[in-house]
Write a sequence for this structure.
């Protein structure tokens, strides 16, 4: 079998025109069938093989010069939908993990029971009692008449708590806390309760029991006490006593109305150390020599006024005589002034013992009788109170 342009073929070559090309309109040779290689018997195309024979992957590649598919310029060869799903899923999981970590971090920093307990202790340490009271109002330890100390009192304290720590919180809401007070480390238990939620994701924890204690002060000789340099008035109905609700701290107490007349006691009380939730102090004043002299002067002046009376029983005076019948010309004389002493356990009081006064007068038993001179002596005692207001001292008799 010959092929076109075969030199061994006997067929004449096709005609050409003068230009050397095929002649336009020249008769064309009938098309010839291309030879097909014979196939051996029983050797068909394997099932699943590409039509037309096996081809290498390299012969099927239609990738561009940069390795990307020409129809999908942003795709990577070999990346399937499953792979892309795995990548996207991993990104979502990573975002969820970051979100969970963020929520847990915020919970531990701002909303955990440890954070609430720490905020409460820090408020006390800084003297911010308004914030501490917002978190838990002290219950007064069962005393409805107790008065809460002010921030000014605690801020003026010689020592407040510091170095606050919250070590752990039990499942029941009991927090183990510690702080330094007056140079010593003290541990305490603070109870918290879960009260709903806040900010959608977080439990709301509140302080259930206050760390405040009670200071009981007795100062019957004054209407005011000084607590850490801040004056606190004593209610009249308490007769010189007061109970103060006080947070952990050191409290210096005294009586502010000191002057040349009295010297006041001082006391130092600590609340919140080693379980000390109740402390008391009995403040008294000691009269000075100047006060004793002033009281003696006023008592003698009073007795002199009594001695000027012409009555057998002078009104408001400690001495008297029994003069009956017709009496005239009665006069008194102070023989001896009483010995005075001052007491300051319940206010400032005075007492005088062994005073003596003599009355001399004329007496007769009837109109026809003559007057006779009588001399009667009375030994007396007297008592009273001393009131001090600034530089003024006032003595009253009882």
């Amino acid at each position: 079998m010959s092929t076109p342009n075969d030199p061994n073929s006997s067929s004449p070559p096709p005609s050409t025109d003068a230009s050397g090309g095929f002649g336009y309109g020249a008769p064309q040779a009938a098309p010839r069938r291309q030879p097909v290689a014979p196939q051996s018997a029983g050797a068909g195309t394997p099932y699943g093989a590409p039509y037309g024979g096996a081809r290498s992957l390299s012969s099927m590649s239609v990738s561009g010069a940069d390795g990307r598919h020409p129809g999908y310029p942003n795709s990577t060869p070999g990346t399937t939908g499953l792979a892309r799903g795995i990548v996207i899923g991993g990104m979502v999981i990573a975002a969820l993990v970051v979100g969970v970590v963020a929520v847990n971090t915020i919970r531990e920093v701002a909303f955990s029971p440890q954070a609430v307990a720490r905020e409460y202790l820090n408020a006390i340490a800084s003297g911010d009692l308004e914030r501490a009271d917002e978190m838990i109002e002290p219950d007064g330890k069962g005393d409805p008449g107790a008065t809460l100390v002010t921030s000014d009192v605690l801020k003026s304290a010689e020592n407040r708590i510091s170095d606050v720590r919250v070590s752990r919180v039990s499942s029941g809401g009991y927090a183990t806390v510690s702080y330094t007070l007056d140079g010593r480390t003290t541990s305490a238990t603070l109870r918290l309760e879960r009260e709903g939620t806040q900010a959608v994701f977080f439990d709301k924890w509140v302080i259930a029991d206050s760390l405040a204690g009670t200071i009981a002060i007795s100062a019957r000789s004054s209407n005011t006490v000084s607590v850490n340099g801040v004056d606190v008035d004593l209610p009249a109905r308490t007769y010189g006593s007061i109970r103060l609700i006080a947070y952990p701290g050191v409290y210096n107490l005294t009586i502010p109305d000191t002057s040349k007349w009295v010297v006041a006691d001082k006391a130092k009380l600590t609340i919140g150390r080693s379980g000390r939730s109740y402390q008391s102090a009995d403040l008294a004043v000691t009269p000075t020599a100047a006060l004793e002299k002033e009281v003696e002067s006023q008592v003698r002046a009073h007795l002199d006024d009594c001695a000027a009376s012409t009555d057998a029983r002078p009104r408001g005076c400690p001495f008297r005589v029994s003069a009956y019948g017709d009496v005239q010309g009665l006069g008194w004389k102070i023989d001896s002034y009483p010995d005075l002493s001052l007491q300051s356990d319940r206010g400032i009081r005075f007492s005088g013992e062994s005073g003596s006064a003599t009355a001399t007068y004329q007496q007769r038993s009837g109109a026809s009788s003559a007057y006779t001179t009588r001399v009667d002596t009375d030994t007396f005692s007297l008592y009273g109170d001393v009131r001090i207001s600034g530089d003024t001292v006032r003595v009253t008799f009882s």
Notes: Helices lie at 57-60, 81-111, 113-125, 129-135, 151-155, 289-307. The first helix runs from residue 57 to 60. Confidence is low (pLDDT under 50) at residues 1-29, 36-45, 51-63, 98-110.
